[in-house]
Amino acid sequence: MIIAGEASGDLHGANLVKALQAREQDIFFCGIGGRALEEAGVRIIVDASTLSVVGIIEVVSKGFSIWQGLSKAKQLLKSLRPDLLILIDFPDFNLHVAAKAKKLGIPVLYYISPQLWAWRAGRVKKIKQLVDHMAVILPFELDFYKEHGVPATYVGHPLLDGDTPPAATGGADDGPDKETIIGILPGSRDKEVIRNLPTMFLAAEMIQRELGQVKFVVSQAPSVQKELMDAIIANHGGNVEYRVATDQVGKVFRMCRLVIAVSGTVTLEAAIWGTPTVIMYKLSPISYWLGRALVKIDHIGLVNLIAGRRVVPELVQQEASPANIARIVLDLLGDEDNLESIKAGLAEVRAVMGKAGASNKVAEIALTMLDPNAA
């Protein structure tokens, strides 16, 4: 049984399922996820899109759906008694499921750790009680779990298993007569897109007014409703020259000189491609202030967290205004030395992320847990 509650987890889970299938044909998969897991052969009992939320307060709006999903997951554990439960990120949901699995004696493999190093570090005690093995994707997470006596393996980042260049390309280079293309990456959840894309379009309008010869590519994640994107674009994108890209986000990085991105996993994808990024993020006011009180980190961008310094600009909440975004983008485009410095920092982050093969490493851990005698 496998549970992935987010779009990125759905993709990484699908790659793990494929890696397991390549080694062992006779494994039946079921659980919670999205299109990628379903296409990989997992029988989906709850669509993850009904559970995914952004922010602390936003959980309330999907409370009933989350409760239903938990009930179905626990009932399936009880009736099916799977040989292994694989949990992918999504901690507030998955740790409840892990508790049920523990009572039933079902081993638990947790792939992609909750960000305990950022907030609610006390949950590591619960993980030690409920999880049999952690497969972590950031190098510093391994030391964290070892310090707390939790069995863990560093497997590298699963983003490196996908369509990635052998080395950072640095995005598109602009000659004197070449048109500048800027990427707009508004997030993988509907709520993120609603809160951030209108601001991004206003910033794009200011940039276009200043530069003239510039175009924008808006990346639409497969987990975001097309109707929602169309409505926002119709209301806010009329004065911007853009096109919407629904294919792999790597193609956006390949063509863009820089991107404006909502904070999340996509910033690590930008690092893999070496594409300079301006990170922004907006939440509901209450979620933001609660988050500020609980989160104990200096940066919101994963790129900056891994680097331990501010490699790329970050703009959060009120700071993420159209004028601020436009000013930073224009400053970067006018300062080649600064762009090159950012590219060098992104290359360092990519090097720290390790090598490809995360899915295969986690598959080996899973098979060992399914048959300890085979190890």
How is this fold's topology laid out?
Elements: E1 2-4, H1 7-23, E2 30-33, H2 35-39, E3 43-47, H3 63-80, E4 85-88, H4 91-104, E5 108-111, H5 123-130, E6 133-136, H6 139-147, E7 152-154, E8 180-185, H7 190-211, E9 214-219, H8 226-236, E10 242-245, H9 249-255, E11 258-262, H10 266-273, E12 277-281, H11 285-294, H12 302-307, E13 314-316, H13 322-333, H14 336-352, H15 358-370
Parallel strand pairs: 1-2, 1-4, 2-3, 4-5, 5-6, 6-7, 8-9, 8-11, 9-10, 11-12, 12-13
Helix pairs in contact: 1-15, 3-4, 4-5, 7-8, 7-13, 9-10, 10-14
Key words describing this protein structure:
2 domains; seven-stranded parallel beta sheet; six-stranded parallel beta sheet; 15 helices; 13 strands
- Give the biggest beta sheet: 7 strands, parallel
- CATH level-1 class of the largest domain: Alpha Beta
Q: What percent of residues are in strands?
A: 5-15%
Basic shape: globular
Strand order, sheet with most strands:
3-2-1-4-5-6-7
Count of spatially separate domains: 2
Topology as a string of helices (H) and strands (E): EHEHEHEHEHEHEEHEHEHEHEHHEHHH
Provide the structure class: alpha/beta
Helix content: 40-55%
From the N-terminal CA to the C-terminal CA, the straight-line distance is: 21 Å
Tally the beta strands. Answer: 13
The DSSP helix count reads 15
CATH topology of the largest domain: Rossmann fold
Mean pLDDT: 87
CATH superfamily membership of the largest domain: Glycogen Phosphorylase B
Q: What CATH architecture of the largest domain would you give?
A: 3-Layer(aba) Sandwich
